[in-house]
Design a protein that fits this description.
Elements: E1 2-7, E2 31-33, E3 38-42, E4 48-51, E5 64-68, E6 85-86, E7 89-93, E8 99-104, E9 109-113, E10 120-125, E11 130-136, H1 140-151, E12 164-166, H2 174-186, E13 193-196, H3 217-228, E14 231-237, E15 240-241, H4 247-254, E16 260-261, E17 269-271, E18 274-277, H5 284-298, E19 304-308, H6 318-331, H7 340-349, E20 361-365, E21 368-371, H8 372-375, H9 379-393, E22 400-403, E23 406-407, E24 415-417, H10 427-440, E25 446-447, E26 449-450, H11 459-469, E27 475-477, H12 494-520, E28 526-527, H13 536-540, E29 545-547, E30 551-553, E31 563-568, E32 572-577, E33 583-588, E34 591-596, E35 602-607, E36 611-615, E37 629-633
The structure holds ligand MIG.
Ligand MIG binds near residues 169, 198, 404, 419 and 420.
Amino acid sequence: MVKRYSIGSVFKSESVIEDIEVSSGLADIFMLDEEKKEVSLKLLDDELVYGLGESVRGINKRGWKYLSNNVDIPIHLEQTMALYGSHNFLLLFGSGRNLGIFIDYPGYLNYDIGFSKRNELTLTFTDLDVDFYIIEEDSALGVVKRFRKLIGKSYEPPLWGLGYSQSRWSYNNEQEVLDLVKTFKENNIPVDAIYLDIDHMERFKDFTVNKQRFPDLKALSNKLKKEENIHLVPAVDACVKVEEGYDVYEEGVKNNYFCKKENGENFLAHVWPGRAHFPDVLNDRARKWFGKQFSKLLEQDVDGFWIDMNEPSIFYTEERVKEIYQKFEEIKDKDLGGGYFAEIQDMVGTVQNRPADYEMFYHETNQGKIRHDKIHNLYGYYLLRGATEHFKEIGRDDILLFGRSSHIGMHRYGGIWTGDNHSWWSHIPLIMHQLVNLNICGFLYVGCDTGGFASDCSQDLLMRWLGISLFTPLFRNHSAIYTRRQEPTAFEDNKSFSDLISLRYAFLPYIYETYKKAVNEDTLYFYPLSFIYDDERSKEVEDQLFVGQSIMITPIYKQNAKGRHVYLPEDMLLLRFRSYDDYDKEEYKAGDYYVSAKENEILVFLRKGHSLALAKPARNTSEVDFNDLKEIKF
Ligand code: MIG
């Protein structure tokens, strides 16, 4: 059962697709403090609180505070309050009731989930203009299903989007791409897609191609597709470079498609291309126009995109930099003590993605003119949505699309990757936690930068990371410029990487079926144990996940570990995979175990009465034979 409650005048975010009449009686559920702009709710003893999609910390969010504020943040720590996406859904269960709370609110929103007071949940708004959707069902999964029906079906990628993909900031030119393909072939590493990061563009201008680096991108795309079944996926950034003669810039200015300041000037920020404007994607005309631009790259026969910087990310505004210069001028002859040093450090240190800059520009929406910060968390969603709407218009439903910034609702149009993680062991459990809560919030096409984006990766870390990434629908190895090369061929044990990445293709039928089912039934692709078992221990386990309802995975995420502790709520069959045809089977009774796993071994536990079908090894998804399967039963 869903009920909607409304406070103030709400911006229609189009996160929800059903029209639910407004009920009265919000006071029966929440305590409202209008002065503090807070609503709160009592949490029951031991109640679990899931949700909030991408945010850091465990699957159970209880005991900490979070913030919805989509931000380009390249360091994901335990105290990082906000990441790139806002997913304002909470699921309360495990102590009798099964309650879903969707907070349809596009501005900044603070959560205190049993942080200040163990048994209290408090939401603090900037403006009390919000719609609440309260869902009550018989089970946690029941709540999720009802919520997902409310927000609409999740995006489905083309089949090749479920293959292994290789990325790097950046493969700089055609030759580097061809060399990569050659090295992969020589080492028998299957691959379905190669990503082009921002350096494929001409001076970081969206939808352009640098001709020196990629003289004929169309020929390259076709060669790779025809000869190797490999797809190229270029990056698109949210910002549009200010440059005379650049058609996207010129058209945008002429037709008032960019976000403007109060005085009517186009808002100007500095991002990768230098001076840039932001398309006003909250405006239907402008969004349609920006979506159309994707055809320029489709004409180069690429058929996928990853959208970056769409929070939108701002390096700095000239207004702020001027203030900083003034401050330097003011203090240049003074002793830097007495607080000046700290002041300067703070001004410079907070110049990026500064809240005040987001208050400087406006959107012309069909619900009126609105200041950006009021709807900030919708920007990434609407930008990506513009692309999908265009693809639909030109009859293309086979495009791979995911973005960095997101909001509930965007899950209907594309997937996400979880942004700039690090080559840290702790970022393996982080993605496991994010996956469950993102699935709950409708995002099924999800993955992280396998091996970690920032800092240097090692062979053991990358290999252990496969313990989770072999199963994530988006399976991409990506790494930052200036870090150690991170392709599987960059390390010593190419053979194991080949065997393990090939396993992805053996699992593909299971992955594909599981994904389809989650879309069609509004359920999960990754299940936490607490959704499958009723015992108390299962509520605590957050480092083991079910993929669908048949197999449980137990990635190893500790440096130098030779195995790990595993909790089995029921009897299971362990499959210890080294490759498609090299694996052992061991039966386990329910209980606690320390299970050993060599660096090149992937542990998969099969449930009683279930089966896992494996396809024959293939070099890419199009070669996988879904009819020739080997079935492992328990
Ligand atoms: O400011 O395009 O998260 O995946 O490689 C950094 C360069 C911009 C951030 C993305 C990352 C990408 C990088 N981008």
